[in-house]
Every structure is written in C-alpha cells, then in structure tokens.
C-alpha cells in the first residue's frame, strides 16, 4: 500500500507598504528552493525599509534590492532557477528577478500586473523566470503602485518619483 503524502500548507506573507497592504501566498511545493530563499530574507527582516525600485505600467512592479536612496543592499548567494515548475507569470503572480544568468536570483522579486507569458519557462532565453507565489489580497494596491509617476535615478529607469517603501514583511496565518 502506498504511503499518503500530506501536502504542507502554503506560506502567507503580509507585506505592509507605504501604498497599502499586500498578502502573498508562497507555493513551497512548486518552488521549494525559491520559497526557502525568500523565507530567509523575510525572517531576517531584510526587506523592511526597501523600496519598489522598478515600476512599469502594463508589466510589473519590482522590489527587494534597494533603499530609498537607490543604494543596493547586500544579498545572500544566488539560488538555482526553478522556472520549469508549472507556475505561470500571470497577473498577480510573484516571481524572482534575475540577471541574464538564469541562476542569479537573490532577493529581488516582482509582481506581474498583466499576463506576461513571454516570461514563462522556457521564455526567450531557454529559462524564463521563476514564479513562486501569488497575491491573494491587495491586488488593488499593486494596481495603484503600477500607475505611479516614474523617472530616472542615476543609472536606473522606471523608478517611482515618490518612493514606495516596504515597511515590513511577516508570515501570517492563511487569510480568510
């Protein structure tokens, strides 16, 4: 007789931002390495005080790497890509940002504001981008963030003129 496996409940993260409250559901079963990495950053308080530094209307909002002065915060080692996990870059999904190197994701993440199928595995580069969760509450906040005025700050484009700060992130019980 086969043993039954009990699926672990998904993790929920409450992200308080200066634009409002967002709750993320993390899919540990589909992206265990990515969720463990994100969980370590949340547990360490790493994201507290960082901003959403890249906002592109009709695409996504990205954060988790810079403070309000656009100083990049140090990170842990990059993780292995898990983009071939069946999860899609659809509206409200949360994915890891990375460089051209598919195994370069560290702390930065983005929330898709549209269906961005070109980012799905295998993507345009044979890898795509790892989706590891979704917004379960606060998509109205993300929609508001997507529409803010942006400009250039140093070498960075698409930076909100008025910073959108992550005030805190913490794990919470499953929202009702």
Automatic annotation (TrEMBL):
Family per record: Belongs to the cyclophilin-type PPIase family.
Presence of keyword Repeat: no
UniProt cross-references to SUPFAM superfamilies, sorted A to Z: Cyclophilin-like
Reactions catalysed: [protein]-peptidylproline (omega=180) = [protein]-peptidylproline (omega=0)
UniProt-recorded Gene Ontology molecular function terms: isomerase activity
Gene3D superfamilies with a match to the protein in the record: Cyclophilin-like (2.40.100.10)
Pfam families given in the database record: Pro_isomerase
Protein function: PPIases accelerate the folding of proteins. It catalyzes the cis-trans isomerization of proline imidic peptide bonds in oligopeptides.
Alphabetized UniProt keyword annotations: Isomerase, Rotamase
Coiled coil, from the record: none
Stretches assigned to the PPIase cyclophilin-type domain: 16-171
Transmembrane residue ranges: none
Catalytic activity, EC: 5.2.1.8
Name of the featured protein: Peptidyl-prolyl cis-trans isomerase
